[in-house]
Design brief:
With 683 residues, this protein is an alpha/beta fold. The chain contains 24 helices and 24 strands. The structure holds flavin-adenine dinucleotide and flavin mononucleotide.
């Protein structure tokens, strides 16, 4: 009784977080759900024997299943399964995706369709949460629908149901007089100045400080009148506390070497233990002072003896274990009031008084550690705080106006504000703490609620056994939209700091479909495949590994290398400014590895890769007829590109075959299904 299954498939942790909070909510109303990754099917549970299951799943790669759901997707698609294999199962499914990808929601749709085909009963329409507009907009209504089903099914009383939300008691009119408002403003200013002073009694510490930002009248700090005056805000109950940290006087001398990365906790998509690599080259490949383009830098690492840990193929990427910046960690720890003890031995355990069912320490933190270590290497302090965390921040301020606004932001009525002022601008925890200077969160609550810091993958642009080379493009987020410190992307900032001789920790990444030769084909096949490669920006990087591999193949077994079209479309703004790997690429043309190098310059000639494709129909069209031989590979660093290039190919097919757009997209979809059209797009 009261038992049901919650299953997730999650690559970067969002679906897992939603599934976990679903479990917590269900427990609050007296249910006893079990929570597993979808790939635990046939191990921890058998979906065909379950009565009720809520599934939260994303897509990754090019409409691929997350690595902890891939096996499940394969298993439920076996031809041998009977039409009523899942009969008896009631399910609800929530998909996470990003509508900027041409394979939007592919996996949730696929699972939904297949479960229904196997006789399972869909309880209500699949939810589609879109990262582009803010996941919460679809997540919350879906959870509401699910709970209305659970309520009837398990006969949950209204009282119990009310345990999930509560009416916020804090009203703005409690701080309404002009004098009080003035006083508050002065207090806020003084608090901010204290943040700017930075050191908080700890000298010589690198400390993040806020930059000046004028919040508009309606902003993160203040909602529109309808929300600000709402008398009956419905806010989620604060997540149950369950963890305690106790810090001793002992210092942990060198946690970095004493503690294994993230407690050796398994991570989807990672196939090796972390191992050390040495930076042997690091150079800018574009002008770092140019304001016109994103700075690009090339790094080469040597795996040394560890090379045996990693057998990489052209198209593969490696993960870098990226730490959080010291100044930001210091700022957060200072706010929590624990900076002076951040380097002492800290023991984490489950609070014996917790009411949370089956409370467990997050697997990615050590039981014995230091707070600095936890916040530097284990927790994601950059991802925009979710509503449960905002709820806890609301509990952690002494300022009634701050509390009210934070409650608004996590309330049912404040969903639009949350999306607009927190999620979309990608505010970090530090941004929130700057905006609400009286919030002093308990450090234990942050360890409970901050998501796991995930390593960042980079495609290799080389093909050597011991070394890997990569090019990255610097991400920049200026002060605006509520962000109080201009920052670079977490990984790209850290990569910027690397110098020759530095040691870094890397992890092997599960091979994806984007590789040469395709998975399951013998290596020598690669030399026989006609290739159409589309790689704007740093997207070209991965094709360098293809081309180096082909050059080696041609040298070492010329009989396997035959003359077929190998065409590369490279897109940049101005080849003299951000044309990367140009000498190598021209060398490949000269050596007969590439048959065509087509460069599309947006600034000089107003040409994007899509224009290049349309201009070269004679070369492109042969790739668009179904064939087991040829391959179209698209790799890029902007999510929007996925959709644009997809549309461009659809236009080409539609015009060539004189068919409608929808029909043309069906043709393309078939090419995708057979892996003739493969994308790898990140953004
Ligand atoms: C298989 C694969 C291969 C890859 N290969 C390469 C490669 O060869 N070269 C390369 O440069 N990159 C590559 N990437 C991307 C790379 O892994 C990183 O995602 C990228 O470098 C950014 O990382 P970061 O930590 O610097 O940025 P982050 O700190 O993670 O910030 C970037 C992301 O955070 C979100 N975000 C953060 N702040 C904001 C904000 N203010 N407003 C809106 N959104 C915000 C956005 O989603 C944004 O995309 C690859 C990715 C994959 C999946
Ligand atoms: C490398 C990468 C590839 C992605 N591919 C797709 C895709 O093909 N289709 C889609 O709908 N969303 C895609 N997404 C968006 C994710 O599904 C979305 O961000 C989701 O919230 C991630 O959830 P997760 O953290 O649980 O994996 C992709 C995201 C990344 C980073």
């Amino acid at each position: 009784m009261a038992d049901f299954l919650i299953a997730f498939g999650s690559q970067t942790g969002q679906a897992e977080t939603i599934a976990k909070s679903l479990k917590e909510k269900a427990e609050l109303v007296g249910l006893k759900p079990r929570l597993f990754a979808l790939d635990e099917n046939e191990k921890q549970f058998n979906l065909n024997e379950e009565n009720l299951c809520a599934i939260v799943v994303s897509s990754t790669g090019d409409g691929d299943a997350p690595d902890n759901a891939a096996r499940f997707v394969r298993r439920i698609n076996r031809r041998t399964l009977a039409d009523d294999f899942m009969k008896g199962l009631d399910y609800a499914i929530l998909g996470l995706g990003d509508s900027n990808y041409s394979s939007y929601q592919t996996i949730p749709r696929k699972i939904d369709k297949q479960l229904a085909a196997l006789g399972a009963n869909r309880l209500f329409e699949r939810g589609e949460a879109d990262d582009q507009v803010g996941l919460e907009l679809a997540v919350e209504p879906w959870i509401e629908q699910l709970f209305s089903v659970l309520r009837t099914r398990f006969d949950i009383s209204e009282d119990r149901m009310n345990a999930v939300t509560e009416a916020a008691q804090v009203k703005l009119n409690q701080v309404k007089t002009e004098d009080e408002k003035k006083e508050l403003l002065l207090k806020r200013k003084a608090d901010e100045e204290e943040d700017e002073e930075g050191v908080g009694g700890v000298s010589g510490v690198d400390m993040l400080t806020p930059e000046h930002y004028d919040y508009p009248e309606v902003s993160l700090l203040k909602g529109p009148p309808a929300l600000a005056n709402h008398a009956n805000l419905q806010v989620p109950v604060a997540p149950q506390a369950f963890l305690v940290s106790s810090v001793s006087h002992k210092k942990l001398e060198n946690p970095k070497t004493e503690l294994k990365w993230q407690n050796s906790c398994k991570m989807p998509g990672v196939v090796t233990e972390p191992f050390e690599a040495l930076v042997v080259a690091a150079e800018f490949v574009t002008d770092p002072f140019s304001t016109k383009i994103k700075t690009k830098r090339m790094i080469t690492v040597d795996f040394g003896e560890n090379a045996k840990n990693l057998q990489y193929e052209p198209g593969d990427a490696i993960y870098f274990c990226v730490p959080n910046p010291a100044a930001e960690v210091n700022f957060i720890l200072k706010r929590c009031g624990v900076l002076p003890i951040a380097d002492q031995l800290c023991e984490l355990s489950i609070d014996k008084k917790t009411e949370k069912i089956n409370a467990q320490l997050p697997g990615h933190v050590h039981k014995e550690t230091t707070l600095r270590h936890v916040f530097t290497t284990c927790l994601d302090i950059r991802r925009a705080p979710g509503r449960p965390l905002i709820r806890v921040l609301a509990e952690s301020t002494s300022d009634v106006a701050e509390k009210r606004r934070l409650l608004e932001l996590c309330s049912a009525q404040g969903m639009k504000d949350f999306t607009e002022y927190v999620r979309q601008p990608g505010l970090s925890l530090a941004d929130m703490l700057f905006a609400f200077p009286n919030v002093k969160p308990p450090v234990d609550r942050l360890i409970e609620l901050l998501p796991r810091l995930i390593p960042r993958p980079y495609s290799m642009s080389s093909y050597e056994s011991r070394r890997a080379r990569l090019v990255y493009s610097e991400m920049e987020f200026p002060v605006s939209e509520g962000r109080r410190h201009s920052r670079k992307g977490l990984a790209t900032d850290w990569l910027n700091s690397l110098r020759v001789g530095d040691k870094v920790e890397v992890l092997g990444k599960e091979p994806a479909r984007f590789r040469l030769p395709p998975l399951g084909q013998p290596k020598n096949n690669a030399g026989k495949l006609p290739l159409l490669m589309v790689g704007p920006g740093t997207g070209v990087s991965v094709f360098l590994s293809f081309l180096h591999f082909l050059a080696k193949l041609k040298r070492e077994s010329p009989e396997s290398f035959i003359d077929v079209p190998r065409i590369l479309f490279f897109g940049c703004r101005d080849v003299t400014v951000d044309g990367i790997y140009m000498n190598e690429l021209h060398g490949f043309v000269k050596d007969g590895i590439l048959t065509d190098l087509i460069i599309c310059e947006s600034e000089q000639k107003g040409e994007r890769v899509q224009d290049g494709l349309k201009k070269n129909l004679d070369k492109v069209l042969p790739f668009l007829t179904p064939s087991s031989e040829s391959k179209i590979f698209i790799c890029g660093d902007a999510k929007g590109m996925s959709k644009d290039v997809w549309q461009c190919f659809a236009d080409i097919v539609a015009a060539d075959q004189n068919i409608a757009d929808l029909e043309a997209k069906k043709t393309l979809m078939n090419l995708k299904k057979t892996d003739q059209y493969i994308e790898d797009v990140w953004g």
